[in-house]
What does this fold into?
Amino acid sequence: MKLYLIKKKKDRKYSSEACAKAAAGVTLEHDVSGRPVAIGGPFVSVSDTKNWWALLTADSPCGLDLEEGGRSLTAASAKKLHALEQQYLAGLEPLSSEWREEFLSIWVRKEAYMKFCGEGLRMGLAKFSVLDADLNYAKTVQAKNYPAAQVGSIDPGRGLYAAVALETPEVLESVELCPYEGQTEREIMDEAADLLAGRAYLSGDLQKKLRTKGYDAEETAETIDRLQELGYLDDEAYAKSFASDAARKGKGKLRIARELAQKGADAATAKAAIEAVSEEEDQLSERERAMEAAQKMLRGAEKPDEKMLARIGRRLSSLGYEPSVIWDVLGKLKS
It folds into this structure.
């Protein structure tokens, strides 16, 4: 297993998806319980503090928790724990350095196990103990109705406390500090407004752009919906404008449809835009535009030879004209 660490900077945005990609080349999604899952990759677990983000990768199901040594604590914090853990801490001077060290050691083990179970804090801190009956740290932890895990601490240095819970024991191969600096901390609506000020976007294209800037899927989808409500995003108008401009440049229906799809337009929107352009009186017909493109290649020559006809056919095909249109143009050029 490996541990990846990212030191957060002030006024920067750190999403788990962006951090995992930057640190370990891992693409994250979440299962129904909210637990992170690496697509086509190793088993993973994530931990996030005020100043640090961490990713554990392992060969079997795992859980990770990371806490900062300077975390604010009160003596009442121990009252949330299992009775055995409270008993152990009661023998130490509250909030002393030893008490803080043991409290955090207990805490990271508990959270690591709860993440291993896919529950997190909703599982309940008092329902199980990471200490055995002799008040020693247990190597195997199992809460009622939950699977057993091998639980132990790891040392990431840097004044951090960390623990892992594993289905099968593994050796920590390395702790890697990654140079990822996150994304600028900005309101997503401001980011979207700046992008739209630069050029028009299809909703799908803008959504992809915002996701690459580190905003998560839920807030991005909500922003797109709001921009559509306010009229700042109009896929139909964008598609029609794009199709009209492409037609004036000599592109055919197939090419226009393909380019709209690449920009995130759905098939129905692209089709409606192309049909609208075809109906405009000031636009040449598909065959007229194809013939115009062919005439530009001829440069005044009256009768093209077979080699030139083949070149014209390839050019018209690359511009996205339908085969029937291409054959019609080539036939007229031959006659």
In short: DSSP finds twelve helices and twelve strands in the chain. The CA atoms of residues 102 and 319 lie 70 Å apart. The chain has a mean pLDDT of 88.
